[in-house]
Amino acid sequence: MLSFPELIRKKRDGETLTDDEVKAFVDAVTEKTIQESQIGAMLMAIWQRGMVTTETQTLTRQMMLSGDVMTWPDEWSGRVVDKHSTGGVGDKVSLVLAPALAACGCKVPMISGRGLAHTGGTLDKMESIPGFNINQSADRMLDSVGCCIVGQTKTLVPADRVLYAIRDATSTVDSLALIAGSILSKKGAESLSALVLDVKFGRAALYKDLRSAKELAMLLVETGNALGIRTGAALSCMDAVIGRCVGNSLEVMESLETLKGRGPEDLMELVSTLGGLLLTMTDLVSDLSEGRRKIYDAVIGGAALSKFQAMLEAQGVANQTARSLCSAHNDYFTVLRKSEHQLELKTTSGGTVGDVDGLVLAKILHKLGAGRSKAGESINHSVGAELLVSIGQQVEEGVPWLRLHHDDRVPTDEQIRCLQDAVCVRADTHTHNTHTVVKELLLPQK
Questions:
Q1: Which entry of 66, 85, 94, 182 is annotated as an active-site residue?
Q2: Is 187 annotated as catalytic?
Q3: pLDDT tens string 374-398
């Protein structure tokens, strides 16, 4: 076996690492027998030279095997599913999708993460609910409820914990091979039957154009299927905001409204499409159309809401609190913390709302305390924003279009100006057709 400096040189010079060499690198990362500087050098070599398909698949498999791999009862065979999103603004899809899938007979061990930079984290959203405990046993939750939203344990894919932190410090986060390894090693350790990936592109996404996002999606689908997981992907546009709310507590409220049948169209499109894909891949339905309809009915009919309430209670939320949040009509702020201040911004001209720049909104909310710049930082769950208009809506000059929720960090004049520039109101008064969020689907080979 080559020494680590020799392995680094080999990859630096564009050569292909053997399966044994990739395994030796991952084992050394896990066992801490390699210097951190050498890990950083290898990551940079991978970032610069890339990896061929076999290298990426071996890297992913060895990362998956670096810790515990979950096992499930035989009777759950074919029904254990999950979803992963590459990150978006206002992306609360998991909060609606997990209980909807459980209501359709799936088992959903949703192991989620925290937010970093402008992208929100599912765990942060759920922890805005008093009492919600992310440190739960997934198998116990799936047996009693059918779904859970929990954090990654220290024994699950420990190699990824090390590599992810060093990728961030070495500016190698956007390597296709390293992204695939990080995402799919964790999903592989969940021992899934099927996985759907929501790969986003646009202003507020990692990849700005459809072509780049599709390259990642194709690699993820190919690698996931090579691990033995039926894997598909949806390519979705991430320019504006998903739904109308951004910020942890506010996104929980919008998720609950959606589970009560009052959700925005774009959120329901993502939930029904991603859920429909999973039901199709597990052969619980005959085609995508039936899958979409089944997920939609679970949400609109209240079955998903019942599962969400059961999940809250199973994960530590008091019975009275869970019932209050899930009741047909309630003031969410009696349970969820409300920010000290609300500020409404008004349109400066009349016409048709043509666009809202979600990235600008997310970055300013991050600075106001809704997000974190490095792992471990605390965040303010109550900071956020509500869009009071929708794209294609006709508005007059001077009507409120955004409500900011903030505490002691007051938005500056410059931030207000940036927010006002983030909304585009066109002079025409033609009503624009509702645009679809999902632009393309990649399905696993039969």
A1: 182
A2: no
A3: 767 788 999 999 999 999 899 999 9
